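Revision sheet: structure tokens.
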Amino acid sequence: YEEAPHLGLWLTGRAMPENWAIPAKPVDFTHLAGLVNGVLAKMNIGHTTSVPTTNPLFQYGLTISHHDQVLVELGLVNKELSKKMGLKQEVFYADFVWDLLLSRTSDIIVIDPPSRYPEVRRDLSLVIDKSVQFRDVMAVIEKTERQLIKKVDVFDVYEGENLGDDSKKAYALKFILEDKNKTLTDKIIDKTMNRLMQAFETELGALIRK
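Predicted:
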């Protein structure tokens, strides 16, 4: 058995001090994700990939990897665990694999040459059954559009009463589209995204939020 150094971040309670001009608002996943992304940026970590976590410690969250190795897992601490610990409010937690993070830190800034044909970003929010896994979402994407989708990342996940159904969860997805041979037009982009949305609705029973 070998213990590895980890860096942990915890958030709970109010996002900001009480103020007469700003209503009290609790911290949420986006606050934690912002801090995590700040750490990764400060340490000059290169391109990462984000997928929904499968760690049972979390009610929901993300796993962020670099070259297929997990750097950090973050999310809402499992509600049953919080209850056993006597916690009465939500706790958000990020767990960095510290030695690995340090090994990937670089003082060298790599600048990729600009593409002749710029990338385009489009975002979609999918409300799907909790039984649907991220690999199911990716399978639909790969089957529907392989050429123009350069990268897919999850930048937010959510489960809760705002969805109006305990059996549902929401993924916010970032799509990067690129054609190496020509500039993408709005018509082509819209056609591609519409095809994906139709596939998500048909094959996953997803509710689409643009």
